[in-house]
Specification:
Distance between the termini: 42 Å
Largest sheet: 4 strands, antiparallel
Low-confidence stretches: none
Strand content: 5-15%
Radius of gyration: 21 Å
Structural class: alpha+beta
Shape: elongated
Length: 291
């Protein structure tokens, strides 16, 4: 594959990262400034802690989110890799700036708190899902969960994030002196998680990807190394051309499809890829890992 093609592909990916993560950060800021913060509803993670600190000390929420993430970023730099941390740090910075800069230009909803918790969850879930799709995170419990799993791989990310969210919910009820605030926080967190799952995974649980290529081993090694997914290689023969090729078979989650296709195109400029919906995937790295 030519260097020109590689540079063009990298440039397109970079602008997509900036665009999609920027939209995701804006939606997340919209959730905080329009729905949750004005109605004393603390979402999960560092944004929930920042909401509580803002209520107690009137400190800017975006600044608090940024400061809380600094120690995690420093620790994760060595443990999770520089590329992941740089992308996540940029997203965290953009998100923090949007949260603090946009309150004056975004209308605030101060009506029914149930609606505020629901729509706050919808916008935050959509924003986070867009960020996750581009291989970054908004910091906070997402990075903490990855760090903990390096030492305790038997604990799922979902369990770690759930525990952190539960702590925030309890704190919000105590600080706001309102059981209703805690209950609305639960609703916001639940709606947000459902929206994330729907956007990332769709109505099914994953995708089956078939790749027809002459660069099977290079692609297979990269997928195993970068995505940590198993892959099968099958010898095939084209019915029309009569050429001998390889077919790669790989099951991934929907949010991993973009990363997989990047890997494939890095080694094969003109691959033939089939992607199909999978109703359920049972096995290591999917359902069994999360139970």
């Amino acid at each position: 594959m030519s260097n020109a093609f590689s540079k063009k592909s990298a440039t397109i990916d970079f602008f997509l990262d900036v665009l999609v993560c920027g939209i995701g950060s804006f939606l997340f800021a919209l959730s905080l400034n329009c729905f949750t913060v004005p109605n004393q509803i603390a979402p999960g993670g560092f944004s929930g802690i920042a909401t509580i600190i803002n209520y107690l000390f009137n400190l800017p929420i975006g600044l608090v989110i940024f400061l809380l993430n600094i120690p995690l970023m420093i620790i994760a730099w060595k443990m999770l890799g520089i590329n992941f941390i740089i992308k996540s740090a940029l997203v965290t910075t953009a998100l923090s700036l949007m949260v603090d800069l946009f309150p004056s230009v975004i209308p605030v909803y101060e009506g029914e708190r149930l609606l505020a918790s629901i729509f706050g969850g919808v916008f935050s879930g959509a924003g986070l899902a867009l960020i996750f799709i581009r291989g970054a995170t908004s910091g906070g419990p997402d990075i903490l969960a990855k760090l903990i799993r390096l030492k305790k791989p038997h604990i799922s990310m979902g369990q770690i994030i759930l525990i952190s969210d539960l702590i925030v919910v309890i704190l919000s009820g105590v600080v706001f002196n309102s059981l209703e605030s805690a209950l609305y926080s639960v609703i916001e967190i639940f709606v947000s998680s459902r929206v994330i799952d729907y956007i990332l995974y769709g109505t099914g649980h994953g995708k089956m990807v078939l790749v027809f290529t002459n660069h099977a081993q290079e692609i297979s090694d990269a997928i195993i190394s970068e995505l940590h997914r198993g892959i099968s290689i099958v010898d095939i023969k084209g019915g029309y051309t009569g050429e001998n090729k390889y077919m790669l078979i790989c099951a991934v989650r929907s949010n991993e499809v973009s990363s997989l296709t990047k890997i494939v195109k890095h080694f094969d400029e003109k691959p033939f890829i089939l992607i199909s919906e999978v109703g359920e995937i049972l096995g290591q790295g999917f359902t069994m890992e999360e139970t």
